Each structure stands twice: as C-alpha cells, then as structure tokens.
Amino acid sequence: MTALKTILYFSIFNYPVTRDEIFKFSTSENIDILDNELEILLKRKIIYQIGDYYLNTQSLDSVKRRLTNNKMAEKIMPKALRISKRIASFPYVKGVALSGGLSKGCFDSEGDVDFFIITSPNKLWLARTLLILYKKIFLLNSKKYFCVNYFIGSNNLNITEKNKFTAMELVTLIPTYGQSIFKEFMSNNKWVKGYFPNKNIEENFSLVSDTKKPIISKLIEFILNNKFGDFLDTQFRIMTLNVWNKKFKHLHNVDFNIAMKSTKNVSKHHPNNFQKKVIEALNENYNHVKQKHEIILEPEHA
C-alpha cells in the first residue's frame, strides 16, 4: 500500500496530491501497479478523489487550499530567489537551497521561506553568525522570508537522521546556488532512494546558478582563513549553544540533540522538533487505517 502511505504523509499537511505526485513519492515499481492500488483504495473508500487530487477525506476545502497555496508559492518564488542570491554572497557560503513548504510548491500567509545552507569546512558558525546578525540588524529579526535554520559544512555532507521525513526534505530541496556542491551532497545521501526511488532529483536543479562573492566577502574570508578564524568559529558555536541550552531547556536531551543539533559542521534550529511530530502523526494515521480498514502499514522511525 505504498500509494496510501504517500497520501497519508501529505495529509498531515492537509495537502491533496496528484497521481503523478503519488508515484513520484512512493516506492511503486510502475504506474500500472499504482493505478491498481488507487482503484482499490477508492472502491473501499479509504481515499477519495476530487478532480485530479487524491486525499484521505472528502474535503473540497483542502483542494481549494492547496490551489491557493500553490499560487502563493509561485508569487513568492522570485523574492525567495533574490534572497537566495543575497545569502550566497555571504562569506563561507558554498551552496543555498530552498526547503520547507516552498520547495514543495506550497506557501501560505503563516509560512516562512526556509533555506538549507552548505558552508565551507570549519567555518559554519562564522557564516551562520554573519547571516543571523544581518537578519537581526537589517531585517529587524524577521524570519518570514529569511529563515536560515539548517546549515551543514561541505566536509560533512552525509545526513545522519535517515527516515521518511528527512528523505522527503532532501529530495524536495531546490538548490539555487552551488550546483556542484549540491550534486556532491545528493551523491553522499543516496540512501534517500530507498524511500523515493521514483523521484528524479536532477529536476530540482532547474533554478540553480552561481554567484560571485562581493569584495567585502572575499576580504572577510582572506582575513579569517587562519587560526583566529577557527577560534572565532568555535566561540560562536559555544555562545550559540549556551543560549539555546537556556532557551530550550524544556527539551529532553535526545530531542535537543536532534532538533538543535550543534556540532562543528552541523547547525539545526528546529525547536518544535518538527521531524518527530511528523513521524508521530504519520504513525497515528497508520494506526487509524489499521483500526478502521484492517490494513497494516509498517511504522516509520524518527
């Protein structure tokens, strides 16, 4: 029931999906097998079809909401690309990608524009601090269009949390700057194919381009490419981690180490631990299907 799993995953976000999207984000061996499964699910009224969209409820509002949010995503995309270019111009930034809802073609009035950033080795916290200072000073700390919440160093391209949620986030990333580093990144995370063998990751690279660093960025890199720069990077990490430990002390250690991961070459700022919440919600959907329709779906792990 791979099609059902895909529909249930997107239902967490109240997002009806098309036949092509279901196939793309499923493990179905071919489209004929998928069509057969969809037909069975529809006959048993486990799922419903409204126009081109499949969902687990008979909600026309969900379809209307998706269409509205798709249009909003198209409208906001040019601005997101301009911000991507700005982020790419900062010192030690080697690659920028759109992530979150916008990378899936969805944006609403309460959403943020999320960015996934790859930095130079051992300079992640320098790059991050400069970007956060820019946000606080020039954007008045607004994260609406400037949510830089996930950084990794280019010498640490393998994502260790391997589950359906992280796989989905990786295969839907839209690189905007740093084509070569993102191709290397995806090469280091081939495990996502186990979750989404039908997703052609290359199609995500249509918006990727390169940008030249301004003189000020080159100058900063020149000044800090030494032991003093390494010292600053370490200090910025320690300072940030101390602030987070105090601010998010309600998080258990296990949750903190995942949601607020702060190593030398990884920085995550996900205080709501969305990964855990999505996996838990998905398993709840699986249990509901089991109880109501006697269909057993293998649970996901976080």
Automatic annotation (TrEMBL):
This is Nucleotidyltransferase domain-containing protein.
